[in-house]
Amino acid sequence: MINSTTSPYRILVVEDNLGDFTLIEEFIIERVDFPKIEHANSFKEAETLLAKPENIYHIILLDLSLPDKNGENLIHEIIALSRHTPVVVLTGFSDFEFGVKSLSMGVSDYLLKEDLNANGLYKSLIYSAERQKISNKLKESEKQVRSFANQLNNALEEERAHIAREIHDEFGQQLAGLKMSLSALRKLKNSPEAQEEFINSLVEEVNNSIEMVRRIANELRPVLIDKLGLPIALEWLVKEFAKKTGMSSEVNVVDTPLVLDKIVEINIFRICQEALTNIAKHAQATEIKLDIACIENTWHFKVSDNGIGIPNSLNNSISMGLLNMKERSYLIGATLIITNNLPSGTIIEITVNPND
């Protein structure tokens, strides 16, 4: 039985036949504790009730033959006004094809009045409400997926633009400089000492170009992960971050071999990278700390800072940075916990068991 003692179970019955309404009301009262039943004799009355923002119903029971509207047109109008409230059609006509069609129009259930009883109506109320909850969750999930896909595409485009700028502005300029230097070198063929000095400067420019290519490649795919493992790659990440931001840093790594799948490693690296990016953008921190430990085959990665914590505007499911971390954690079967450690900063914890 539906218990509505704390929050009344509100039902709108749209029915012009007083006898049918009385019977429906009795069936509802038989199975629902203290329901709040409201009655509309016509579509116009139902429209007036549904238009009021304060009128939020758990279910709408709709007769298909009203004096001012009926059939498909009535269903379309009520669905449009329902604000995602489940609509159960009650009818005296046993038209199977129309019943199936009404379900495709958004109706939650289709009940024949001649077969109606308390148990059948109660089941329809429960099933319709649960289906609506599931449907709402699916719609919200789809909305989040679309939002994430859109933001991810934007992030990829921004990253491509960033790499293109670095290649064009820095690497391109270095290559142009090398070209001019080589042209100038031709003019120094009669001065061995000047040639030697020029060649040394060319070697330095080439070394700078090589270093830049390595840096760009490392941003795309950290080589340290493949060569030296995740802990050293994360230690390098934190130190580079501290160098760029001027923050002080501390890294504590358990001296234990780390055995993780490469996909897991790269995702953990990216989560930590995203955490550091959020710290730089929003935390107003002066100190960062990374702790890596293994307890009973479960690896723990903790990034913490001494900043102001996560702003409320970011602490939601569609914030790009947080959503990105959550999605990566989900993909590798890791647990992600983000805690505002007020009044001093944020703690981001990732736990993963290679054997799970």
TrEMBL record:
Coiled-coil regions in this chain?
131-159
Instruction: Using the record's annotations, give every residue carrying the modification 4-aspartylphosphate.
Output: 63
Which PROSITE patterns is this protein grouped with? RESPONSE_REGULATORY
The record lists the catalysed reaction(s) as: ATP + protein L-histidine = ADP + protein N-phospho-L-histidine
Q: Which Gene3D superfamilies match?
A: 1.20.5.1930, 3.40.50.2300, Histidine kinase-like ATPase, C-terminal domain (3.30.565.10)
- A matching Pfam family: HATPase_c
Q: Boundaries of each Response regulatory domain copy?
A: 10-128
Q: Cite the EC number.
A: 2.7.13.3
Cross-referenced InterPro entries, in alphabetical order? CheY-like_superfamily (IPR011006), HATPase_C_sf (IPR036890), HATPase_dom (IPR003594), Sensor_HK_TwoCompSys (IPR050482), Sig_transdc_His_kin_sub3_dim/P (IPR011712), Sig_transdc_resp-reg_receiver (IPR001789)
Sorted alphabetically, the keyword list is: ATP-binding, Coiled coil, Kinase, Nucleotide-binding, Phosphoprotein, Transferase, Two-component regulatory system
Name the enzyme group at the top EC level: transferase
Q: What is the protein name stated in its UniProt record?
A: histidine kinase
> What organism does the record attribute this protein to?
Pedobacter boryungensis
